[in-house]
Every structure is written in structure tokens, then in C-alpha cells.
């Protein structure tokens, strides 16, 4: 036993007991780690932090995004200098006003204001009112500090009016004119008359807009096509050729026909415009100005302070519906984002259709056919590195290669008549999808390759033993078995692609696209058109909007929508993957 | 960073078949039998240890049988390693032939050479010849795919494909392009009946084959192997991953298939070899030591070494 006490002896004399002692000592020193508790806390803490950050982000987006459309009450404030302003509270803030701020008030009011300030140790709350009435006041918002308020009230009949142009209007309706009839006086009667008149006026407006955008657009396109045919004939056969002459003749005929039809259409449009001309509502603003608005210009109006919960829900629902299904107006800070939703979904789907087969084929070659070696390893590292290239670089590449080289060549070959106006030689849906497909290629290849590697060798051997060729084995055994992994790659690519913005700015996303890339005119899908994208829309709202205060809440709402869209796309893919997994992997795995 | 390293390395591991890896030392350093039983003569093993050629002790009973598969002086190298030495044997038609021997003796390698599964490994070199019903297996210009269609194979672990039971059974017909629904259904039923699985699965042919139990999966693999009417059926330790009851059923099945099919089977289980096979070949360190009718091999082997092995004195 004396051996135990001595320090570890040499190898030759060390017996079992000495080794036991040393091992026990080691265990004592690491016992904290050995029992695992700190590791549980460490790993759990890391996960909790990650969840907290993601949850916080989501909470912020949801808490700011959801109330955007809720109809707030309208507050009317009278300031100490006698001005009156009405609007919805958009933001609240605390600050320490300097004496200069107080000195802006009329002299008589300064003492009262200073007294109020002194009461609160020099601090004051200020509220930002969305006061609207831009054409009268030149501003959409106004800050009002508490110390300058003389009186505040919530007028019963004051209405919030959302218009096609000029932003919101706040005022009490005092008169409605409709087809020569005029209702004024009793606010309840006036409001009733407004509600009766508003619908028909809007219907007339929709009809007129339909004529203006679609019917007249179609005639213009017919004329344009004829002109292009002339140009084409000239390019092909020479300007003096009989073909060109015939095309010119045809074009003249088409022009005559379209002009005749245009005449009819214009008349009809004028008629509709005239019918709505004297359908108006007159409102009295808080500072006593009477202002008359055309009924057809009013999207929505409601007496904010009279609404019950159901009516508020109605306004909320109608705004949400307009947001999702409507078109943007007021340089995107009002109205809907339907074109952006549509553009995002369509671009993401086209990207997936392009990238998944391409990525799967590349992964198949790398994993199944290529002989492992330094070249394959180098290719694999290159693919992994591709995922680390800044996305704007892909955008620059897409612009330089797809738009300016490929697109320009397509234009020269197929759309020479339209030059110098580019058709494909500019940003467009197809180029954006291709650029993003390139960007998400590694995201597809890496999981696919792993899924292929995970197919048990015994299955391949079984297939070869049945007399299957390599390709038959890949097609019938390996690919189905790897399908869930391929779907994982696709899900990652969808999420990555749908959320990417930077490259899109260069290769096709636009602030406002006049036409959807998918419509009723042949060939239905127009891959050359530029499109709207939710991610780009968020950037545009947040940083490019002229009325940025009004756009701010929409940034959150649009973000929420984009997240929801990505989640929906992913859920669909995950559902498909779960089905595949059940089918191809069964109990075994 | 490079996540695909591990799978690749793993796959490469699997590429080298188990027997090859279990032959680590050259025969010179492999004298356990001698040490374990110094009193018994081990002339043959000593000769092998000296790397002298061994002439297989082939019993007379085999010469009378008609051969479905002939193996002649077959040699196989994994890279630098000589895994099969001059193996010559005739596998009789309509009978069950068992390959026995300690781990790493080359049984599975020999079996996988018959349908050229070893072609999938780059480092393999071949010498000698095999003939299936007179047709050379290793001659240049042989279509491996066509060859494999004439040979059925069942593996150690059940390996049903990730598809329905029906599609599993008719797989070899499908890859031949057979599209006639009725012909496929008929082949499926016949094969499943022959594999004794029809009654259990006839109502769920469209279910995933992966939901079957281990024993059912192995019988499905047998059904798949016989669906193409193979000329010879290779079984590579078909029961090693199964429980005793499932093993019993597979053995019964082999008994039933006898006559209709020529079976070449690798087994580790001496009782299984003695119960199910008509002929037995004993292999050791890549040589075929003794080959004869099963009763003779187990009851009156010509060589001491064979007797030691079948009675469990070593191995």
C-alpha cells in the first residue's frame, strides 16, 4: 500500500493500483463537467438566447404590424395660440422643451405654458397627430406638445376620409351633393346621404378606370403592334420593299380602326366622368375651412369617434383586404401590395423550378459519377464558398451577364423592331429568377449531396444485383429515397430566395410595375417584365417614401406579410416532404 | 465547413467488403489453429501458411452432378491483398450449396464475384474464369447488366427498396421495361407465393415495403430475387440479421426452393449448413479447402482441418 502514497512510479513498476489512483484524481478535477449540469445550462442558454432574439423580432413585427389598420379615434386639439387641429395620434414622445420653443407661443399664453412645464420639471409630452388635409396645410403630420394645449375633444361626427390622392382628410361632413340633390345640416342625415351616394359614385369610377386602363390599353397595344410590324418588315426586306409597303398599309388600316374605337371609348369615359362630376361631399375641417371632395376620389370614410367594435372590425377587415388584394397608390404608401405579393411568389416559384433540377443534377454528378479526388473536393469547396458571396455581387453579375449580354442578344435576335427600347435587355422577372437561382444553388446542392450520400449502400447493391444500370438505380432507388433531403434543400432555397432584396434591385424589381408579369394577354407569362417584390417594397416604404411617417407602420405590416408568405411556402414544402418521408422511408431509418 | 466530408469517408469505409478487412495479416502470422490444438496435425494449414498452393479436396459425389455454375482457378485481389486463391468448384443444378468458413475466408467475396458485384470496387483484380451454364462470366465483352439479370442475389441485411411491396417484387421486370399490368401482377403473385409471403401481404401490396418486419423483408428480397427467374440464386448469410423464428422460416423456404432453383449460399451457422444444404464447401484464408456432399463434410470429412472446423474446434 505504500506505493499508493508515492507519486506515479515508472512504467515498469507501475501496477494496477497506481493507475487507479491517477484515474480517480483526473475524475475529481473534471467532476463539474462530468456530471453534465453546466453543459445543460450552456446549451440550453444558447438555445434560449436564440429563441429570445427571434421571438423578440417576431413580436416587434407583429406588435407594430398588426395594429396598422386599426381605426384610431380622432382627437381635436386647440392650442394656446388659437389653432385647432384634428387627427389620429401616430406617436407619443417625451422631451425637454427649450425656452425658445415656449417663446414661439403668443405672449399671453407663455406664462400658462411655463407653469405647466414647471409642474413637470421641465419635461413635456408631445403627440404626433396625423392631421392630413395636405392640400390645405402642406403637411401630413403635426407635433403638439401638452403644454401648448388649451382644450381637447373628440368631435362626434368628424370623419376620417381615405382618398386616392393627397392622403387622408379629417373633417366633419356638412353637405352631400348627389345628382343635383343636396343634403346639409343635420350631421346624421348628411352621413346617411354620404353612405348612400358613395357606393354608386365609386362604381362609376371603377367602370371608368377599367375602360381607361384595359380597353384603351388594348387599343394602344394594337396600334403599337401594327407599327412594330411595319418596322419588322422594313428591317427584314428593306424600307422600300413591297412587304414594308403592305405592312404600312395594314398599319394605317389598324390605326383607322383603333382610332374609331378609341373615339367611342373616350366618349364613354367622358360621359362617366361627367356623371360623377357633381357627386361631392363638403367637409368642415377643425380650423373651420370648408372643403369639397369628389365622392369618386374617396376610397373609404368613417366617423372614427362613433364606431362600435363591430364597425371598427369592419374597417380593419376592409383595410386588410385592400392591403392584400389591392394595388398600391400614393407612391406605395397607401393601398395594397397585391402586385408585390404576386411578384414575390411568382419569382420564388420560377427560381425553385430553375434551381432544384439544376442543383440536383449537379449534386448527382458530384456524388454518383465523379471520381472522388482533389478536383471534386475543389469543386465542392467552390460551391460552398459560393454561398458566402455577397448577394449584391450576384445582382451585379445578373445585370451584367443576363440583362446586358444575354438579354441584349435576345433583343437583337427576336425583338429588333422594338430597339432601342429593350425587351429582355433590362431587368425582368426571368433575370431576377435566374440570378436568385444562381444564388441559392449551393443551398440546394449541399443538402442534396448529403441526402444522396445517406442512401444506404445496401439498397444500391440490391438494385445492381437485380440487373439495374447505374442510371436506373439512381432514378428508381436513390432519387426517391433522397427526395426528402432534396426537399430540404428546396425549402432552404425558397426561404433564402423569397427574402433576398439586394440583387433584385439591379435585375428587375421595381418600385411600381404597371402590369403583372402574368395576365390575360398572350403569352400570359411575361418573363421580361419588371415586377414588384415585397422585400423591395419594404425597402422602398422605409427609405424612399416621400410620406415616410405614414409609410412607417406599413413597413412592419409588409414585413409581417413577407414572413407569413415565406412561412406558408415552407409549410407547403414541409408537408410534401413529410408525405414523401412516410412513403419512401417507412419505419426504417 | 465542409459538411460532406464525413459521409464520403463513411461510404468509402463501406466500399471495402467486410471479409477483406478481416484479413489483416499475411498467413505467416496466423497460426492460431496450431497453437490452440498443438496435438492435432495441421498439414494443410501449415502449407497455406507457407503460401504453398492448395488443391481442393473435392469429393467424388460432385462429379456426377450437372453444374449450373463452374468456377475455375479463380483468383481475386483487393489491391495488394490476395483474397481468393485458385478457387475451383462446380455448383450443381437444382441443389443447395453452402459456403462455410471462418470470418474473412472469402466466402462472401466468392459469392459476390459470381454476379460481378465486386466490379463496383475499383481496386479489385480478377484471375481465372467462371461460367454460368457454359457462358463465361468474366470474358471481355460480357454485358454485366444482362449477366446480373440471370442471377438472383439476397443480401445479409434485408434491403427492400423504398417503394411498395408490389413494386419491390417486380423491380427487375420494371427495369426491363415490362409495362403490362397483368404480367406484372402475375409475376408478383407467383414470386410472393414461392417466397411464402403471399398470404401475409396480399391485401397490402401497395403499402411501403419498409413497414414489413425483418423476416418478411428478407422473404420479400427472396421474392424479388426469384421474380426474374434466375439461373442461380446467391444467398449471402440471409439469416444473420434475423431472429430464430424468422430464420426457421427462411430455412424452410430454401428447402422449398430447392429443385426449382440452384442456390449458392454463404452461412456462418454450421447447423444451418447441415440442415439446408446438399453440398458444402469449406473455405479458409481465401482457399477452398474441401468440397463435397453435406453429409460427408459434416460426418466423414477427408481432411482433419475440415473436421476441426465443423465440430467447432476452431473458427
Provide structural commentary:
The complex is a heterodimer of chains A (589) and B (315). In chain A, strand 9 and strand 10 form a beta hairpin. Chain A is flat and about 95 Å long. In chain A, 62% of the residues lie in helices and 13% in strands. Chain A has helices at 2-5, 16-29, 31-34, 37-65, 99-103, 107-119, 134-137, 187-237, 242-277, 309-325, 338-369, 374-386, 391-414, 429-439, 441-453, 457-465, 470-499, 502-507, 534-544, 548-585; strands spanning 75-79, 84-95, 124-130, 141-145, 149-153, 159-163, 168-178, 181-184, 280-284, 290-294, 298-303, 328-329, 334-335. In chain A, strands 6, 7, 8, 9, 10 and 11 form a six-stranded antiparallel sheet that branches. A five-stranded antiparallel sheet of chain A has the order 4-3-2-1-5, with no helix packed on it. Chain A has a two-stranded antiparallel ribbon with strand order 12-13. Chain B has a single domain, classed as 3-Layer(aba) Sandwich (Rossmann fold). In chain B, a hairpin with a 2-residue loop joins strand 10 and strand 11. Chain B contains 15 helices and eleven strands. The longest helix of chain B is centred in the middle third of the chain and has 14 residues, at 181-194. The interface between A and B is large, with 34 and 42 residues.
* Largest sheet, spatial ordering of strands of chain B: 1-11-10-4-9-8-7
**The top level CATH class name of chain B:** Alpha Beta
Text of the CATH class of the largest domain in chain A: Mainly Alpha
Largest interface: A-B, 34 and 42 residues
Give the overall shape of chain A.
flat
State the main characteristics.
heterodimer; A: 589 residues; alpha+beta; SH3 type barrels; 4 domains; 6-stranded antiparallel β-sheet; 5-stranded antiparallel β-sheet; 20 helices; 13 strands; 62% helix; 13% strand; B: 315 residues; alpha/beta; Rossmann fold; 7-stranded mixed β-sheet; 4-stranded antiparallel β-sheet; 15 helices; 37% helix
Amino acid at each position: 500500500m505504500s506505493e499508493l502514497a508515492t507519486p506515479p512510479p515508472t512504467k515498469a513498476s507501475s501496477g494496477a493500483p497506481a493507475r487507479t489512483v491517477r484515474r480517480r484524481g483526473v475524475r475529481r478535477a473534471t467532476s463539474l463537467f462530468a456530471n453534465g449540469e453546466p453543459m445543460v445550462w450552456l446549451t440550453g442558454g444558447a438555445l434560449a438566447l436564440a429563441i429570445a432574439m427571434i421571438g423578440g423580432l417576431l413580436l416587434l413585427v407583429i406588435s407594430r404590424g398588426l395594429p396598422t389598420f386599426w381605426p384610431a379615434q380622432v382627437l381635436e386639439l386647440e392650442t394656446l395660440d388659437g389653432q385647432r387641429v384634428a387627427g389620429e395620434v401616430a406617436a407619443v414622445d417625451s422631451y425637454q422643451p427649450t425656452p425658445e420653443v415656449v417663446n414661439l407661443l403668443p405672449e399671453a399664453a407663455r406664462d400658462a405654458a411655463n407653469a405647466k412645464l414647471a409642474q413637470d420639471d421641465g419635461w413635456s409630452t408631445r403627440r404626433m397627430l396625423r392631421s392630413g388635409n395636405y392640400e390645405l396645410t402642406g403637411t401630413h403630420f403635426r407635433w403638439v406638445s401638452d403644454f401648448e394645449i388649451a382644450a381637447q375633444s373628440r368631435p362626434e361626427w368628424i370623419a376620417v376620409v381615405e382618398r386616392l390622392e393627397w392622403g387622408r382628410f379629417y373633417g366633419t361632413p356638412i353637405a352631400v351633393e348627389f345628382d343635383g340633390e343636396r343634403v346639409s345640416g343635420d350631421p346624421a342625415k348628411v352621413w346617411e346621404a354620404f353612405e348612400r351616394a358613395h357606393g354608386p359614385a365609386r362604381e362609376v369610377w371603377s367602370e371608368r378606370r377599367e375602360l381607361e386602363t384595359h380597353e384603351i390599353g388594348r387599343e394602344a397595344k394594337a396600334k403599337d403592334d401594327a407599327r412594330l410590324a411595319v418596322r419588322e418588315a422594313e428591317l427584314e426586306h428593306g424600307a422600300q420593299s413591297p412587304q414594308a409597303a403592305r405592312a404600312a398599309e395594314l398599319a394605317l388600316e389598324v390605326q383607322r380602326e383603333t382610332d374609331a374605337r378609341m373615339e367611342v371609348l373616350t366618349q364613354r369615359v367622358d360621359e362617366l366622368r361627367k356623371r360623377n362630376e357633381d357627386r361631392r361631399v363638403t367637409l368642415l375641417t377643425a380650423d373651420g375651412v370648408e372643403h369639397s371632395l369628389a365622392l369618386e376620389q374617396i376610397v373609404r370614410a368613417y366617423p372614427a369617434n362613433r364606431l362600435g367594435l363591430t364597425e371598427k372590425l369592419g374597417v380593419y377587415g376592409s383595410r386588410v383586404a385592400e392591403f392584400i388584394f389591392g394595388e398600391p397608390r400614393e407612391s406605395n404608401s397607401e393601398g395594397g401590395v397585391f402586385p408585390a405579393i404576386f411578384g414575390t411568389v411568382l419569382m420564388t416559384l420560377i427560381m425553385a423550378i430553375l434551381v432544384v433540377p439544376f442543383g440536383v443534377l449537379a449534386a448527382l454528378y458530384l456524388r454518383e459519377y465523379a471520381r472522388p479526388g482533389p478536383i471534386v473536393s475543389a469543386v465542392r469547396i467552390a460551391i460552398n464558398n459560393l454561398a458566402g458571396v455577397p448577394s449584391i455581387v450576384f445582382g451585379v453579375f445578373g445585370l451584367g451577364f443576363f440583362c446586358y449580354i444575354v438579354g441584349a442578344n435576345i433583343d437583337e435576335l427576336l425583338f429588333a423592331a422594338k430597339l432601342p427600347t429593350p425587351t429582355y435587355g433590362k431587368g425582368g422577372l426571368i433575370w431576377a429568377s435566374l440570378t436568385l437561382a444562381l444564388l441559392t444553388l449551393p443551398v440546394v446542392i449541399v443538402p442534396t449531396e448529403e441526402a444522396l450520400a445517406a442512401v444506404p449502400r445496401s439498397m444500391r447493391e440490391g438494385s445492381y444485383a437485380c440487373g439495374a444500370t447505374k442510371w436506373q438505380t439512381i432514378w428508381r432507388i436513390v432519387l426517391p429515397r433522397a427526395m426528402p433531403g432534396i426537399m430540404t434543400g428546396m425549402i432552404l432555397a425558397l426561404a433564402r430566395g423569397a427574402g433576398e432584396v439586394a440583387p433584385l434591385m439591379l435585375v428587375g424589381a421595381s418600385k411600381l410595375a404597371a402590369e403583372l408579369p402574368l395576365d390575360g394577354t398572350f403569352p400570359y407569362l411575361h418573363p421580361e417584365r419588371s415586377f414588384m417584390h415585397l422585400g423591395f417594397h419594404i425597402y422602398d416604404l422605409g427609405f424612399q417614401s416621400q410620406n415616410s411617417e405614414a409609410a412607417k407602420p406599413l413597413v412592419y405590416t409588409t414585413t409581417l406579410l413577407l414572413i407569413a408568405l415565406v412561412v406558408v411556402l415552407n409549410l407547403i414544402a414541409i408537408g410534401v416532404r413529410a408525405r414523401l418521408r412516410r412513403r419512401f422511408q417507412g419505419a426504417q431509418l | 465547413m465542409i459538411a460532406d466530408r464525413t459521409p464520403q469517408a463513411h461510404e468509402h469505409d463501406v466500399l471495402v467488403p467486410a471479409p477483406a478487412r478481416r484479413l489483416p495479416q499475411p498467413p505467416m502470422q496466423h497460426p492460431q489453429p496450431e497453437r490452440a490444438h498443438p496435438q492435432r496435425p495441421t498439414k494443410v494449414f501449415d502449407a497455406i501458411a507457407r503460401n504453398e498452393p492448395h488443391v481442393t479436396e473435392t469429393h467424388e459425389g460432385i462429379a456426377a452432378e450437372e453444374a449450373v455454375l463452374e468456377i475455375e482457378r479463380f483468383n481475386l485481389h483487393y489491391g495488394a491483398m490476395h483474397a481468393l486463391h485458385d478457387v475451383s468448384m462446380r455448383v450443381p443444378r437444382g441443389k443447395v450449396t453452402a459456403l462455410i468458413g471462418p470470418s474473412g475466408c472469402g466466402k462472401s467475396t466468392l459469392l459476390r464475384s459470381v454476379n460481378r458485384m465486386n466490379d463496383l470496387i475499383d481496386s479489385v483484380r480478377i484471375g481465372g474464369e467462371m461460367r454460368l451454364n457454359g457462358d463465361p462470366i468474366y470474358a471481355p465483352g460480357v454485358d454485366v447488366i444482362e449477366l446480373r439479370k440471370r442471377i438472383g442475389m439476397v443480401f445479409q441485411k434485408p434491403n427492400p427498396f423504398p417503394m411498395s411491396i408490389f413494386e419491390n417484387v417486380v423491380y427487375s421486370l420494371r427495369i426491363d421495361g415490362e409495362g403490362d399490368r397483368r404480367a406484372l401482377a402475375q409475376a408478383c403473385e407467383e414470386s410472393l407465393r414461392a417466397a411464402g409471403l403471399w398470404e401475409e401481404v396480399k391485401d397490402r401490396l401497395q403499402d411501403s415495403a419498409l413497414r414489413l418486419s425483418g423476416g418478411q423483408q428478407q422473404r420479400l428480397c427472396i421474392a424479388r430475387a426469384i421474380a426474374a427467374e434466375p439461373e442461380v440464386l446467391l444467398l449471402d448469410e440471409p439469416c444473420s440479421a434475423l431472429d430464430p423464428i424468422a430464420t426457421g422460416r427462411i430455412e424452410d423456404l430454401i428447402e422449398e426452393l430447392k429443385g426449382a432453383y440452384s442456390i449458392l449460399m454463404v452461412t456462418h451457422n454450421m447447423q444451418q449448413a447441415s440442415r439446408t444444404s446438399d453440398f458444402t464447401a469449406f473455405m479458409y484464408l481465401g482457399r477452398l479447402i474441401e468440397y463435397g456432399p453435406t453429409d460427408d463434410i459434416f460426418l466423414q470429412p477427408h481432411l482433419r482441418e475440415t473436421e476441426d472446423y465443423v465440430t467447432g474446434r476452431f473458427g
